[in-house]
Amino acid sequence: MIKDMPVFKSDKEAAEFWDKTDATPYMEGGEIGEFIWEPVEDRCNYCSSKMEEIVRDIDFLKGRITFHKIKKYHCPNCGKEKLAKEFREEIPLITKELVEIALQV
After folding, report:
1. How far apart are alpha carbons 21 and 32 in whole angstroms?
2. Does pTM top 0.70 for this prediction?
3. Which pLDDT does position 15 carry in this prediction?
4. pLDDT grade, residue 89 (50/70/90)?
5. Distance CA 27, CA 42 (A)
6. Segment holding 87, helix H or strand E
7. Which string of DSSP letters, residue by residue, matches 1-29?
């Protein structure tokens, strides 16, 4: 019988688990089952510490483009940062609009 894949809070937690665990019970016919990992928004993907929410302006192209009031997270433990999911999801739309503007020239 195949075991369900565990849910991990970070890459580090997953790595520590698989370093100590035989993967055989999670496999069927020699193939690994589906593995889904959804990072927790306010947890660091590297060290699993609780991250601090920060809202600030972010400059691109040496200040020629500024995004205002962007939420991001900062890890006080390891110093890593990440943009909030809502802004990360808008990046493809922003890119598309910038390309459309550039092609109008």
Report:
1. 14
2. no
3. 84
4. very high
5. 31
6. helix 85-88
7. -PPPPPP-SSHHHHHHHHHHS-SGGGEET
